[in-house]
Specification:
The protein is mostly helical. The protein is about 75% helix and about 0% strand. The radius of gyration is 20 Å and the shape is flat.
Length: about 180
């Protein structure tokens, strides 16, 4: 059950990452076009950077589900399948620990309870916590940066889900070739 939820979430992440890859390409082409005609749109650069960051985090989370992350396999390839299984579980535990730390850091950074306690009044929140995350705008888009930083929550939640699914004994993909 958990593995199916993880697989479904990974499909959503990959679909969103693919859409964002197309968006980055179109934004760069728009940038090239507008600069060539002498009427550059400066916000396009910033939006392309944020779209690429979102694409990267969503794709990285989905890669954890599919076990397609970059890895050095010299040692796992040299050991028995049983030892390889143990090593894979150790890696899953490390990924889970990292994902849980990311969730904790996001919780500390975004301080959702502090914002709720201040009645979602950003000025009161800033005054009581000295946390200015909700007030900082992007340079050219003029949108709050926390909207773009929220991908950190999605990555941490996805990485937690995927690592828990692997630790639950769910099927692993792809199968070992040995």
């Amino acid at each position: 059950m958990l593995f199916r939820i993880s697989a479904f979430w990974a499909r959503i992440e990959l679909g969103a990452a693919a859409l964002l890859a197309v968006t980055v390409t179109l934004l760069i082409l728009l940038n090239v076009l507008t600069r060539n005609i002498g009427s550059a749109l400066y916000w396009v650069d910033e939006l392309a950077i944020y779209a690429m960051a979102w694409m990267t985090f969503l794709g990285a989370s989905a890669a954890l589900h599919h076990r397609n992350s970059v890895a050095i396999t010299l040692l796992p390839d040299a050991v028995s399948p049983g030892a390889r299984f143990v090593m894979r579980k150790i890696v899953d535990i490390v990924v889970l620990a990292f994902a849980l730390c990311m969730l904790w850091f996001c919780w500390r950074w975004f301080m959702p309870l502090g914002l709720a306690r201040s009645g979602f009044d950003v000025m009161a929140f800033q005054g009581s916590t000295f946390n200015f995350i909700y007030a900082e705008p992007t340079l050219t888009l003029g949108l709050p940066k926390y909207l773009f930083w929220s991908v950190m929550w999605l990555f941490a939640l996805g990485a937690t889900l995927h690592s828990l699914a692997h630790l639950s004994g769910a099927p692993t993909a792809p199968k070992d070739a040995t």
